[in-house]
Amino acid sequence: MKGLHFDDIEVGYGSRTVLRGIGAEALLPGTVTALIGPNAAGKSTLMRAIAGLLPIKRGAITIDGTRIEKLRLRPRAKYVRYVPQTYATSARLSVYDAVHVAARAAAPDEAPRDIRLAVATTLERTGTAPLADRMVCDLSGGQQQLVALAQGLVRPAPVLLLDEPTSALDLRNQLEALRLLRDAALRDRIAVAVAMHDLALAARHADRVILLSQGAVAADGTPDDVFAAPECGAAYGVELAATRSGSGALLIEASLP
Question: Which of 152, 197, 190, 157 lies closest to 174, judged by CA?
């Protein structure tokens, strides 16, 4: 079975359960899935659990037919890469070195020449090549987010998870980042899942949308189906209207009830 499949996932912090009975059909290679939902719906918790940063209390996580929920972080990295929302590092690394470290960690047996080529290519694709010699800790929040994106893309695993990867980016860079993710999904045949708050971006750039609400899956399907579902507006406490523009783009309008 190709792609990422999670079934009956239960995750919590101590005695508090955040996700209960979470399951979905496989997230397929070559596709981008937007994970949406209001604050505290469990989006980041689900991603961290799949990445192995949080233990699951119950359920199964399968990637390309392999059960990974009990794997430790290093062997799990062969199957899934996770890019958090905020870039945190105490080491003074240049942008080049930060991406190089990520590439080496993802492919420790790869030839040094191939690693260097992958780093250079990724820096160019993500627009971070001009920053290569700068220290990551000296960059703006948006620039750091682009570096984190480069780290996730330099040697992607079969599943790439990104938590709010556009939150600190300006409009152009938001569109560029989402185009990069779309290109990577198709080029590398990976399943990309992106936690997002911007419903307009999710509507225009995702193949599939999964709506989380109160720790459960409230809706799952195409952007047209999910944004037209009454559960979507109810989850956010707003009234949603999904329409098509003259160019065919899906537009989302929200208003208070």
Answer: 197
